[in-house]
Design a protein that fits this description.
Two copies of one chain form a homodimer. The first copy, chain A, is built from ten helices and 13 strands. By secondary structure, chain A is of the alpha+beta class. Chains A, B: Keywords: ATP-binding, Kinase, Magnesium, Metal-binding, Nucleotide-binding, Thiamine biosynthesis, Transferase.
Amino acid sequence: MERTELNTLGEFGLIDRIKSKFTNQNAETIKGIGDDAAVIDVGDKYMLVTTDILFEGIHFDLSYTPLRHLGYKAVAVNVSDIAAMNGIAKQITVTIGLSNRISVEAIDELYEGIKFACESYNVDLIGGDTSASASGFVVSITATGFVDKDKIVYRNGAKPNDILCVTGDLGAAYFGLQVLEREKQVYLANPSMQPELTEKEYLVGKILKPEARTDIIHELNELGVVPSSMIDISDGLASDLLHICTQSGVGAMVFEDKLPIEDITMLTATEFNVSPITAALNGGEDYQLLFTVKQSDFDKIQKVSDVLPIGYMTQDTAVQLALNSGGTAAIKAQGWNHLR
Amino acid sequence: MERTELNTLGEFGLIDRIKSKFTNQNAETIKGIGDDAAVIDVGDKYMLVTTDILFEGIHFDLSYTPLRHLGYKAVAVNVSDIAAMNGIAKQITVTIGLSNRISVEAIDELYEGIKFACESYNVDLIGGDTSASASGFVVSITATGFVDKDKIVYRNGAKPNDILCVTGDLGAAYFGLQVLEREKQVYLANPSMQPELTEKEYLVGKILKPEARTDIIHELNELGVVPSSMIDISDGLASDLLHICTQSGVGAMVFEDKLPIEDITMLTATEFNVSPITAALNGGEDYQLLFTVKQSDFDKIQKVSDVLPIGYMTQDTAVQLALNSGGTAAIKAQGWNHLR
């Protein structure tokens, strides 16, 4: 039999390949594969469904990931996907794959983090699956949520001249991970060394315990602003902006000097000899919201703390970064392309 | 830190432990952990949500599991959980964990099986997650479905004197697995041997490609019968009947001579020197429906082909098997108790 390596397709190629094979048969199914969450018509409202899986050794390293934080993060990233449709998550199911390395106390810690997130985001744990896993530790969460039908936001609604906005700051989670990896190597070389993380606390917090921006969804709702398109930044601003552009059939111009990057991120970028702009564009795991609004909503948007306009959408489909040095550079996608 | 081994809790102990920590906060959440599917109030109807994960090396062995069948089965077992609430599944999300051992052609095969099941059960694939996995191959599916509010069936509604019914036949999947394991050992000992499975086709089909009994749900609906309690048999009749009994606060008397066991299952039980009754009670993976009905529904139930009354529910909470030899034996639970 022929054998094509998955690496030749990459993540997005694989998703496109799967999507092309399926068509929806039920009238209730409004949106399937291809956005932050699927959309089901349940009568008065739309129900949103999203799912994310976290594998030990791929998404987290138990040597520096407290299980409490892992539990919190696993919930937050799903709540974030529901937020990216302009919806509010209400329920989650939690599935775990376990080996005998994991103690009851460790599971308790994981679920303490999950519970803390459930309380923080007002979400109910309604079910799941617990299974033995032949290999590593696995956490898979599915979230359901609701949105008013006239307020749903897809990736494909951006129009030329819409303003591109982002919440919070970018690149911090990327450097948080670099710091943890460095401390792990130091520890492995000399186990008597204690990690020195105090000054990097902000960065480490961003990778270990990101927050879903449901606060922004509530604020936009109160202001009566419905974004024309939205996505949450999981793979990196570049990759996620390209999803909006491709699906909306538009381009974008992003201003380098508008990218929100914290001082500690800047400092740490110098330390690691990595461009902070590259980290902001391609670092990923920020879980901030990236969205577009009509120009007429600009005044309202400026009232929302922690939302920053960083560019605008264009008729021309090029997706570009306007450089501080003058000129532009093309913004390119990322995603996993290599499996072990 | 104290360390308690998970094996001391077992699967059901762990689920109870998790359940005890959480309370639901949203009015829409009707039923959380503890049934075949969670129940969410979405207005006119109830939405049902269920999830199941399958790990390579635990739930399937790629050396004798065609990926097409694995895909079909992964969908069917979730559709079966929705059916066990008297509902009809409408959507699924599919999450896969991949290593570089898996080719694009293998993924295509998996999704062909998933597609075949989607068409067979009229279910839409609406999303999922594709991730690298540090180790084995993993398939996690979440299904959503609907049921009329006045037709939902829980595990906890059985009443004394209700009739206990089961669909199809039992124990075949258990022996299908034994046959596959035996042929694998023969093959490993001598790779030139071709497996001889023709006469065991029925058994092997039951483990590799079980069907969800949505046909029974439609038939019951047409007859106007709403079971008083229902569960699908995944862990084995014994274990699943005990869930109904515990949650309903009743006992049961099951007649050994009523247990539906096919001739080929009987024959193979002799071959493997395993009691066919033990396989029927504790084999698991049958994915048949186990349900109770009021005595007044008995006449209607007899019109449904492939449904068999096998006993009745009792005020006394003992759960017993009435033996052919006279006397009774206690029916005991199973579930996973040992992790590797």
